[in-house]
Design goal:
Radius of gyration: 27 Å
Low-confidence stretches: 1-29, 129-134, 136-151, 163-169, 433-437
Enzyme class: hydrolase
CATH class of the largest domain: Alpha Beta
Protein name: N-acetylmuramoyl-L-alanine amidase
EC number: 3.5.1.28
Number of strands: 15
Structural class: alpha/beta
CATH architecture of the largest domain: 3-Layer(aba) Sandwich
Oligomer: single chain
Catalytic activity: Hydrolyzes the link between N-acetylmuramoyl residues and L-amino acid residues in certain cell-wall glycopeptides
Mean pLDDT: 81
Keywords: Hydrolase
Length: 437
């Protein structure tokens, strides 16, 4: 059986890349990971309910690289892109082959016309007859239509026995290592509470000519309302990054073991960051005389925003942490989301309001006057009603500490009052003038 000219060219090119990569990696001490943020520039990738794919994956890619650079001094991190630019698929694999990568990780987000689809999945190069995996490959490969020179991509025919033989020779060298990292990634996603759709094989251009262990990670379906909101949030990006990083730590440890790397090159245990004693940090993103709902466009897609009313103004806070590193990450993310004047607000734990001031939870506003027996309060007791113009405002609880006010707020939200907010009072009267925390 004779290989066709095209298959010979592909096979010889791959074997040359493999030979050079093995030779150079044998001489160098460092481990090289190439992190590929999918799409970019004129190619937005999948459209998300909160944020587009190209922005989410770039954010996660930069976070992942930063974490690896900080903890692994013997690892060289190479990015295919660090800004919102367009790269052709062949350029991405060329970067990996040029640097003789020990691991190539292409990061993406999934999308489907079925809005209920959700879950992570990680792909390695392989032959698959599954319609589902073929659909994913077609979508990720469709970027070729945006490229100037499409003739450079050799067509692969899975029904051609000669092509299949060439294909299997090419990818047998790194298949096991690719599968190892893919499995580790999905295991870490599950540990972080995500739903895994498993490890799969498919024919991705960005993996096909890679002379290294290579995977394509789908972080989740940003077409799904819940998963799209999660991956568009600071928490979602951080959790996704942590999963990829923990998988890398295990992959690198096994790589070192197999290559006899010990001593100073071993990874040192990461020091656990200590909380800042007695303080809680939030990011104040906005002050307005208008009250905005959780999905208001003025919040720029941020989720979990906390609203506190001080007199006639509303202050909007994002995030909640007692760790300095998370505080800085939250601030940077808020600024990237368009809140250029955002700043860190420090709250002293269990600090009490002065005099008769107290926090209450406004959970309902209506032009009707309700009483307990009307069953409009969701089981909340000791409700205070305040008439303001033609409206009746209903408040639950009374506390002098912000921590207890947050607990009261959560209780009201769990009762179904999702738009409830924290309001400051002087005794049983609303504070008329703006107060500063």
């Amino acid at each position: 059986m004779r290989l066709t000219r095209i298959n010979k060219q592909i096979l010889l090119s791959f074997l040359l890349t493999l030979f050079l990569g093995v030779s150079i990696n044998a001489q160098k001490k460092s481990f090289t990971i190439v992190i590929d943020a999918g799409h970019g520039g004129k190619d937005s990738g999948a459209r998300g309910v909160v944020e587009d794919e190209k922005h989410i994956v770039l954010d996660v890619s930069l976070r992942l690289g930063k974490m690896i650079e900080k903890e692994f001094k013997d690892v060289q991190v190479v990015y295919t892109r660090k800004t919102d630019v367009f790269l052709e698929l062949w350029e991405r694999t060329q970067i990996a082959n040029h640097h003789h990568a020990n691991l190539f990780v292409s990061i993406h987000c999934n999308s489907a016309t079925n809005r209920s689809a959700y879950g992570t999945e990680t792909f390695v190069m392989g032959l698959s007859r599954s319609n589902e995996t073929m659909d994913v490959a077609k979508r990720e490969n469709s970027v070729i239509l945006l490229e100037d020179n499409q003739e450079k991509y050799q067509k692969f025919d899975p029904n051609d026995p000669e092509a299949v033989i060439a294909f299997e020779i090419m990818f047998s060298a790194f298949k096991d290592q690719s599968l190892d990292y893919a499995r580790l990634v999905e295991e870490e996603f599950v540990k972080n509470g995500r739903s895994s759709r498993g490890v799969k094989q498919s024919n991705f251009h960005v993996l096909r000519t890679n002379g290294s262990p290579a995977v394509l990670v789908e972080l989740g379906f940003i077409s799904n309302q819940d998963e799209g909101n999660f991956l568009g949030s600071e928490l979602g990006k951080r959790k996704a990054t942590e999963s990829l990083f923990e998988a890398f730590k295990k992959f690198k440890k096994e790589y070192d073991r197999k290559n006899g790397i010990t001593g100073e090159e071993e990874v040192k245990p990461k020091e656990v960051e200590k909380p800042v004693a007695g303080k809680t940090f939030k990011i104040q993103i906005l002050v307005s005389k208008n009250k905005y709902g959780p999905s208001a466009k003025q919040l720029n897609g941020l989720t979990g925003v906390e609203v506190v009313q001080f007199g006639d103004v509303f202050k909007y806070y994002y995030g909640n942490t007692n760790l300095a590193s998370e505080r800085d990450d939250l601030l940077a993310y808020a600024i990237r989301k368009g809140f250029k004047d955002a700043f860190v607000a420090e709250f002293i734990n269990n600090e009490k309001l002065e005099g008769n001031q107290n926090y209450r939870i406004q959970f309902l506003a209506s032009n009707k006057k309700y009483r307990d027996r009307d069953n409009k309060f969701g089981g909340l007791k000791n409700v205070l009603r305040v008439k303001q113009g033609n409206m009746h405002l209903y408040f639950y609880g009374s506390t002098k500490t912000y921590e207890q006010a947050q607990k009261d707020l959560k209780l009201a939200q769990d009762k179904g009052f999702k738009s409830a907010i924290i309001v400051t009072f002087d005794g049983e009267k609303l504070i008329d003038e703006s107060a500063k925390k």
